[in-house]
Design goal:
Strand content: 15-25%
Helix content: 25-40%
Shape: globular
Distance between the termini: 13 Å
Number of helices: 18
Number of strands: 24
Structural class: alpha/beta
Radius of gyration: 23 Å
Length: 555
């Protein structure tokens, strides 16, 4: 099998103007970024506002493992398969972050014969959206410190500044820093931090805004600090939101690319699901729903993270009607959840597989809590035995859930035909969406609902700092916001070492942050880091470029 980058380079891409024409987008609405990428003007939505939406298919997965689940590959393959079946289909994905790309994950544009292209461009800089988010975020940080330095007219408490800085890299050395050194001209010395750009509230606001003016308003509502009286100081108090919106005026426009089979794809926005809400922009999905009969949207990590946040945060903000949820799993990953080491997962082990099925069952149950119909996509590897496949297929039938084999990685859209047919059948079901919690419930009640229902925890415990912040938010009338939990993606619990379907644990909330501009509250569970570090041998060691500009090592 060829590498992902070799397959991508052999793709016969169409000019993006031709892809747009297939999508029903007039060339006048395109802003070209070379031959194969374009941004789409938001003006197009004015003429589409009365058009009926297509069916939305949401893709989530079991708890991630080093064995791989193939969620992005499934999303792309499913959209291509729907087109092969004569349907008008598209997909929406998040933009890859440079941090994981150079860290442990590598590229995030799909894999095998189920990719979005141009793969190198999408993984490295793309149209500059994440850089624009970083610049807007750090402009606000600079204006906070400048206000402190220039006489502190807002009476800001330098010990209660909430707004740090961001960088789109995995860089553990920047997690906790001291700034303002260098004497009187260096500013006011204080402790601060860096987060990864994709966890920035600016990225969340970009993802949850319907137009540029709404984005500007939400940027103004960002809470950056407290004053000495204990009142909030917002970005608009610093008069920063206008300039921030100016930096994001192009970033808010959806990016149009294509799959290896020339299916139109929107890749826009990049919030992580373990420390943010984990879905591409609602603008991109809204546009796709107006243009296509079926739209496949990927959410980040497992159902208890990206899946839950899609319904409780994104759907509340956008009013989406999801027709079906696809939960992605692999035999290899399930065997790891059953206690099998990665090095052994190519061997048949029915005991480990059956033990690991609890993880898949929990993710199916999670999505059913929202009332939505579910299909399991079982990504097939060449090492999977017939007996192993039968175990998973049989279990799904016992649970009363539809399941289909998926071979999109090896065969592209053709390999996802079985899955596409099953999804189309289930998508005709009617249901009433059930949110996990009442939006007006107390903050701790909402956190408890997520921890006990989604994670399977016995309860929640709070460190003193988290308790104080929750009480403060409720005192200030901000308790009626949705919850965006920051938690490890490596376990259903807040302990990354607990695999399978853990039980008998409590979730620890050590800190609570407020994203007033984005419109949600962020409890931080366990030891989750909002700025990842590089592994011992980062993927960057294998990435290179030759004299002709050809990139190697991306996967």
């Amino acid at each position: 099998m060829k590498s992902d980058i070799e397959i991508a380079r052999e793709a016969k891409m169409l000019p993006i103007t031709e892809v747009a024409k297939r999508a029903g987008i007039d060339e006048d609405y395109l802003e070209l970024y070379g031959k194969y990428k374009a941004k789409v003007s938001l003006d197009i939505l004015k003429g589409l506002k009365d058009k009926k939406d297509g069916k939305l298919i949401m893709v989530t997965a079991i708890t991630p493992t080093p064995a791989g689940e193939g969620k992005t590959t499934t999303t792309i393959g499913l959209a291509m398969a729907l087109n092969r079946l004569g349907k008008n289909a598209s997909l929406t994905l998040r933009e890859p972050s440079l941090g994981p790309c150079f860290g442990i994950k590598g590229g995030a544009a799909g894999g095998g014969y189920s990719q979005v292209v141009p793969m190198e461009d999408i993984n490295l800089h793309f149209t500059g959206d994440i850089h624009a988010v970083s610049a807007a975020h750090n402009l606000l940080a600079a204006m906070v410190d400048n206000s402190l330095h220039q006489g502190n007219p807002l009476d800001m408490d330098s010990r209660a500044v909430l707004w740090g800085r961001v960088v789109d890299m995995n860089e553990r050395a920047l997690r906790h820093i001291i700034i303002g050194l260098g004497g009187k001209t260096g500013g006011v010395p204080r402790e601060s931090r860096f987060d990864i750009s994709t966890s920035s509230e600016v990225m969340a606001i970009l993802g949850l805004s319907n137009d540029l003016m709404e984005l500007r308003e939400k940027l103004g509502n960002i809470i950056v600090a407290y004053n000495r009286k204990g009142d909030f100081i917002r970005a608009k108090d610093l008069k920063a939101h206008g300039a921030m919106a100016a930096l994001l005026k192009d970033a808010i426009k959806p990016n149009l690319v294509q799959t290896l089979e020339n299916t139109p794809a929107f890749v826009h926005g990049g919030p992580f699901a373990n420390i943010a809400h984990g879905t591409n922009t609602i603008i991109a999905t809204k546009l796709a729903l107006k243009l296509f009969d079926y739209v496949v949207v990927e959410t980040g990590f497992g159902s208890e993270l990206g899946g839950e946040k899609f319904f409780d945060i994104v759907t509340r903000a956008a009013g989406f009607k999801t027709s079906v949820v696809v939960v992605v799993a692999t035999v290899r990953a399930l065997k790891m959840h059953g206690g099998m080491p990665l090095s052994e997962t190519k061997k048949e082990d029915l005991r480990a597989l059956k033990e690991g099925l609890g993880n898949l069952k929990k993710h199916v149950e999670n999505m059913k809590m929202f009332g939505v119909p579910v299909v399991v996509a079982l990504n097939r590897f060449s090492t999977d035995t017939d007996r192993e496949l039968e175990v998973v297929m049989g279990a799904a039938k016992e649970w009363g859930v539809k399941i289909a084999l998926n071979e999109a990685w090896a065969r592209g859209g053709e390999g996802a035909i079985e899955l596409a047919n099953e999804v189309m059948k289930v998508a005709e079901s009617d249901y009433e969406l059930k949110y996990l919690y009442d939006i007006n419930a107390p903050i701790k009640e909402k956190i408890h609902a997520i921890a006990t229902k989604m994670y399977g925890a016995d309860g929640v415990r709070y460190l003193k700092a988290a308790d104080r912040m929750i009480a403060n938010l409720e005192d200030k009338g901000m308790g009626n916001l949705p919850i965006c939990m920051a938690k490890t993606q490596l376990s259903l619990s807040d302990d990354p070492t607990l695999k399978g379907r853990p039980s008998g644990f409590e979730v620890e909330i050590r800190e609570v942050r407020i994203s007033a501009g984005a419109g949600f509250i962020v409890p931080i569970a366990g030891t989750i880091m909002t700025l990842p570090g590089l592994p011992k041998h980062p993927a960057a060691e294998n990435i290179d470029v030759d004299a002709d500009g050809n990139i190697t090592g991306l996967f």
